[in-house]
TrEMBL record:
PANTHER family to which the protein is assigned, alphabetical: GLUCOSAMINE-6-PHOSPHATE ISOMERASE
UniProt keyword list: Carbohydrate metabolism, Hydrolase
UniProt source species: Paenibacillus eucommiae
Record-annotated Glucosamine/galactosamine-6-phosphate isomerase domain positions: 18-226
Catalytic reaction annotation: alpha-D-glucosamine 6-phosphate + H2O = beta-D-fructose 6-phosphate + NH4(+)
Group of enzyme by EC: hydrolase
Pfam families: Glucosamine_iso
Protein name per Swiss-Prot or TrEMBL: Glucosamine-6-phosphate deaminase
Encoding gene, per UniProt annotation: nagB
HAMAP family in the record: GlcN6P_deamin
Job of this protein: Catalyzes the reversible isomerization-deamination of glucosamine 6-phosphate (GlcN6P) to form fructose 6-phosphate (Fru6P) and ammonium ion.
Pathway: Amino-sugar metabolism; N-acetylneuraminate degradation; D-fructose 6-phosphate from N-acetylneuraminate: step 5/5
EC number: 3.5.99.6
Amino acid sequence: MNIHTFENEQELNEAGAGIITGLVQMQPGAVLGLATGGTPVGIYEELVKAYKKGRVSFKKSTTFNLDEYVGLPEDHVESYHAYMKQHLFDHIDIPAGQIHIPDGNAPDLIEECKRYNKELEKAKQIDLQILGLGHNGHIGFNEPDHSLVSGTHLVELKQETREANARFFASIDEVPTHALTMGVGTILKAKSILLVVRGEDKAEIVHRALTGPIQTEIPATLLQTHPHLVVLLDAAAGRYFK
Ligand SMILES: O=P(O)(O)OC[C@H]1O[C@](O)(CO)[C@@H](O)[C@@H]1O
């Protein structure tokens, strides 16, 4: 595990984007696992800048998003479909057919999970999985539980997750109660993982996740078992690592 702490958010963003562009430059057909939420926004901004400067092309890349809310229309500004377009896909050259995001509006959500798993199987392996971290230790939307699911599945969001994400909605009542998420088995199967964590409010959980006992009640502790984990922390999130 390689942990890097940054005093400056911009340096963190550039480092994160540099890891992604470095991979895509060397391996244009790379399969990228993408995250949403507040954490990766600055990294996506740097990716867009790199693309606009002609430093990288995503024409041959494939992407798989970690998760999507259930029941939020795709064009709702807080759906992860809309988020990805707004922050990345509308500004780079990736062909639409190479983008994969679970469909939280599918008529049969269990079938949709199976379909997503099949797409992941076809891609064989994610080369680089980008992850944020929930305050309760969730990765993707794999919430703390006495057991965890390996593949894509339907989850009920914990109240604390809905509260944390309420900042993006007009009120907590608008935050969906369920989501589809890639499972921890798929996440851990990625060749490399890039975990990004920002803010004082996540300092304790990221420290527990990376140094505490491995337990499904803190799903991110499973990342300790991954052979190629890179962690980027801002100074506030990294305070217990100093
Ligand atoms: O980056 P945020 O908004 O703090 O969210 C933490 C994590 O939880 C999620 O919202 C759930 O997948 C992710 O998008 C994010 O990585």
